[in-house]
Amino acid sequence: MARGGSSSLSVAGRERKDVEKIRRIRMKNLFLQLESLIIPPNYSKKGVPINELVDHATRYIAQKQEKVEGMKNMKEKLQLCNEAGCHKNIIEEMLVLLWRLSS
C-alpha cells in the first residue's frame, strides 16, 4: 500500500517539475521577446540581465508615453489653429515640430 502511495506521489512530483520547467521556458522566451523589442540590435552586450532589461523597458515605456502626450497636445493645438484660421506658416512650423517629436 505504501508503495502505491509513493508511486502516485512521484508521478505528481514529476508533473509539478514538468509544469515548472515549462513555466521557466515560457518566461525565458517572454524576456527574450522583450529584449528584442526594447534593446537595439547593435547593442554590444548580449543576454542583458533581467533586472536591467526590466529597468530599461520601464524607462522606454515612460519615454514613449511622454512622446505620445506631447504629440496629442500638438495635434490639439494644430486642430485649434486650423479652426481659428491660423496663418499657413504657423501650421507648417507646428507640423515640423510634431515631426521632430515623432522621430
Automatic annotation (TrEMBL):
Pfam families: HLH. One of its GO terms (cellular component) is RNA polymerase II transcription regulator complex. Residues 16-64 form the BHLH domain. Transmembrane segments: none annotated. It comes from the Eukaryota. InterPro entries: bHLH_dom (IPR011598), HLH_DNA-bd_sf (IPR036638), MASH1/Ascl1a-like (IPR015660). GO terms for molecular function: DNA-binding transcription factor activity, RNA polymerase II-specific; protein dimerization activity; RNA polymerase II transcription regulatory region sequence-specific DNA binding. Coiled coil: none annotated. Keywords: Transcription, Transcription regulation. This is BHLH domain-containing protein. It comes from Stephania japonica. The lineage of its organism: Eukaryota, Viridiplantae, Streptophyta, Embryophyta, Tracheophyta.
